[in-house]
Design brief:
Layout: H1 3-11, H2 26-37, E1 48-52, H3 56-66, H4 70-73, E2 76-83, H5 85-93, H6 102-126, E3 130-134, H7 141-148, E4 154-163, H8 177-180, H9 191-201, H10 210-218, H11 223-237, H12 246-255, E5 260-265, E6 272-277, E7 282-287, H13 290-299
Antiparallel strand pairs: 1-2, 2-4, 3-4, 5-6, 6-7
Helix pairs in contact: 2-6, 12-13
Amino acid sequence: MTPDQVRAFFTHHRTVRKYQEFVIPDDHLEVMLYAAQHAPSDATAQMYSLIRITDSLLRGKIAEISHNPHIASASEAFIICADLHRLKQLLEHKGFVYGNIPAVGLHFALGDAVMAGQNLLIAAEMLGYAGCWIGGILSSLPTLADLLELPSGVVPFAGLTIGLSDENPVQRPRLARSSVIHHNSYAELDSTALELALQDMAPISRSGDWSQTLSRYFAVGGSMETREVQMVEYLAQHSFGHVRNLDTLFAQAEAAGMSEVLLRRKLASSVIEAWVDAGHLAFRGEDESATLALEQAIGTIAPL
């Protein structure tokens, strides 16, 4: 392909939520999945799973809880997941002990999942289809996990629908390249550049104010705060205890009958000691992280 052809291909990209009734031919679906499986992966581990939703009742339930009806109407619907469960199984199958890597494992697994999903979407677009990434599946994360019977170590990242478009959405604007491409070091945007960025993206909002759109998601009181609570709880329950915050751990210590929680740093050391005290009993943990030190102390009381 020439540079102009590549530019034209990506210019043609649209996010679509209204699809024609159409069954994607098997050879088309096969090559989309082939593309997904040939995405880059960290350390060859392929830490992702794509859950193809073919059951119409299940599609309907996921569409309802995510408030995205096109999950039920698209030709194909997937849930894109970071998957450390399979990696753990593979290691243990050969007698290895799975490492204590909740943070770095999740980091690379999410990368693998996104790259596989995007490869699938690009292959679909090359065949003339359109699609939509769906963050709304996180709106009811516990319910979704139950519906999909997700084991510990599997984290849904997003939904992805594919089909023939039945709408003609306008092309969405993008930030100026100078806002997102940095050279050799990170370049902070000054107030003038920030205003230009808001102007660049103004057409995406009905009000012409992109900051208002962002605020509905990411500001205090926005929808992401609700998702944050569910995500932290889900991760903590599914082998990613590193996401626990101190408030959660203090509440857990209190629920376990502890009357006092003490955190202190050892002199001339980066190690933090955590003590939980019930008067007649005291439990200790230590780590360079206050959260992990407190987790250790509480872990001697009851499993986290």
